[in-house]
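Recall the central idea of this unit: under ordinary conditions, the amino acid sequence of a chain determines the structure it adopts. In this exercise we apply that idea directly, starting from the sequence alone.
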Amino acid sequence: MDFEAARIKMVDNQIRTTDVTSHDILKAFLQVPREEFMPGSRRTLAYIDEDAPLGDGRFVMEASPLAKLLQLATIRPDDVVLDVGCNTGYSSAILSYLAGSVVALEEKPELAAAATENLARLDYVTCAVVEGPLVEGYASEAPYDVIIFQGSVETLPETFFEQMKDGGRMVVVRGVGNAAEAMLYVKDEHGVVSERFGFNCSIQPLPSFRKAPEFVF
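Accordingly, the structure predicted from this sequence is:
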């Protein structure tokens, strides 16, 4: 299979057509070999317009919504980014072309190991994979210029606002299914956080951020 040709088609047909106009983002998606971050059985399906299942409710996000979320974050070349739920490392590799450094957070040991191996093998030296509960963020490297989530959330712990740098941005899809919305949070120089609606966005949820079932009498 000609993966390079498939990658170009993905950018032209899936990303450019969904209002992604950032040249840096388009270039990043052209540079990163998505097939290298897929389970062996799915390598030939790496560039179809779907999420790639990894098991246990986890997915590599399809290209179009990922690109739109990155564009919403307005990532700068010197930014430090926290990538929450990095899975096998694909999103972190994309981020490495946009930011100064990437902290790739993953809680599942097998996915963290895969991300570490993939990013090292492909020489993405500005990405550091760290293992820990997703809902806690990663305080030891905070504060961050940008925080982004590789899946939607039903609840957003306060700790993520605490880990934003003054002037920092956080992009997260809140809600589930077709009711979910991509939101941009910005912390000003006084530590005050404001929020702005970005666009409607239906993506797979991050299981760790589901609401606890409510007890009903």
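The mean pLDDT is 95.
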